[in-house]
Amino acid sequence: MVEIDVQIPTAFDPFAEANDSGAPGAKEYVHIRIQQRNGKKSLTTVQGLRKEFSYEKILKDLKKEFCCNGNVVQDKELGKVIQLQGDQRKNVSQFLIGAGLVKKDQIKIHGF
C-alpha cells in the first residue's frame, strides 16, 4: 500500500492578524481627510491620534511648519480632531512620520 500525506486546509480567519497585535479592535489608524468648502477653499482634518498626545502642541507645530491656520475640534463620536486650512494631507503625513508620532503604515489619506 502507498501512504499519501494529505493536508486538510484549515479555515481562514480574517481577524487573526488583528488579534495578534494586542489592540482591542483593528489597527489604530490616523485618518487624514480633505473637506471641500466653498469654491476652491478646503479643510484638512486629522483624526485618530493617540489620546496621550497633546493636540494643541501638535497643532502649534503644524501651523508654524505649513504657514496655515487651524484648530482642535471636540467631536462626540470621533474625539479630538485637528483641522487645518488648505490641502495639507501630504505635508501632515510627512510631518507625523518625521516627528515619530506614527508609522507610515498607520496613516490613511482620504480624498480626491
From TrEMBL:
It comes from the Eukaryota. Signal peptide: none annotated. One of its GO terms (biological process) is regulation of translation. PROSITE patterns: SUI1. It holds the Pfam family SUI1. Residues 30-100 form the SUI1 domain. GO terms for molecular function: mRNA binding; translation initiation factor activity. Probably involved in translation. NCBIfam families: SUI1_MOF2. Belongs to the SUI1 family. This is Translation initiation factor SUI1 family protein. It comes from Forsythia ovata.
